[in-house]
Specification:
Elements lengths: L3 H6 L7 H12 L2 E4 L4 E3 L8 E6 L2 E6 L5 E7 L4 E2 L12 E4 L3 E6 L1 H10 L1 H27 L2 H18 L3 E2 L2 E3 L4 H8 L3 H13 L4 E3 L2 E3 L3 H7 L22
Antiparallel strand pairs: 1-8, 2-7, 3-6, 3-8, 4-5, 4-7, 9-10, 10-12, 11-12
Helix pairs in contact: 3-4, 5-7, 5-8, 6-7
């Protein structure tokens, strides 16, 4: 299976063989597995490495004092959990796993080697960071303006497209290991409302859920129903002017 970070970066620009080898080496140095429903790092702790998700699902979340949780980001294979984390003295959010996760810990020295010695990779890192900010803005719009139906359908559409971009979808289906409670924490809805909305999306023929698999029979129809515009994901190879010469 293609390395998820390489697959993601090539949504931006075409990497050289040297670029790819450097990424593989750097991300293979410190790899660890984290069980489901554990914190990788907690709010208030000092960050020591950039975390890259190689497999599995994680989330960025905030907790209120009474235990209520808001999931503010999902991290999927190929996602970097904050490229600029070294400038922080302490974390202002927690990073937790939703499934078993395999992640690569990139210390400052490894990030500096990649960004200083491989300019195309450095540009791709910045692109990935900007895309994360773009997704965060879309989630804010989701919570503030979209209806529950649009909100949940839009999120499912985003997840499918992000997984497809790194080769983790098959046809019109992808993994969806999230519980309704986790979907509720990400969309600002109650679990009862999430359940009812999923039933509405099913009844409209826009999604099918079986076990931990999501199927979107007609992606264009789901996009239209949720006013989904793919532009915020920036999967348009906007860095094509940086493409490596493969000839």
């Amino acid at each position: 299976m293609l390395h998820p970070l390489i697959a993601k970066f090539e949504q931006f620009t075409r990497l050289s063989a040297e670029d790819k080898d450097a990424i593989r080496r750097a991300t293979a140095e410190r790899v660890r597995a984290v069980p489901a429903h554990e914190d990788v790092i907690r709010e208030g702790e000092a960050p020591k490495a950039v975390n890259l998700i190689l497999s599995g699902w994680a989330c960025r979340y905030k907790l209120l004092e009474d235990g209520r949780r808001q999931i503010v980001s999902f991290f999927l294979p190929g996602d970097i959990c904050d490229f600029n984390v070294f400038v922080l003295k302490s974390m202002d959010y927690s990073l937790g796993t939703l499934t078993q996760v395999t992640l690569s810990e990139l210390p400052r020295a490894a990030v500096e080697r990649l960004t200083l010695d491989f300019p195309r990779v450095a540009q791709a890192f910045w692109w990935e960071s900007l895309v994360n900010h773009s997704i965060q803005r879309e989630w804010t719009l989701n919570l503030g303006q979209r209806t529950a139906y649009e909100r949940l359908g839009h999120l499912l559409c985003e997840i499918f497209l992000r997984l497809r971009a790194v080769g983790r979808a098959e046809g019109d289906s992808c993994e969806l290991p999230l519980t309704q409670a986790e979907l509720a924490d990400a969309t600002g809805l109650s679990t009862v409302h999430v359940n009812r909305t999923l039933q509405e999306l099913r009844a409209a023929g826009l999604v099918a859920l079986k076990g931990k698999t999501l199927t979107i029979p007609d992606l264009a129809a789901l996009q239209a129903a949720t006013m989904f515009n793919t532009n915020y994901l920036h999967f348009d190879r906007s860095g094509r002017h940086l493409d490596a010469n493969m000839g």
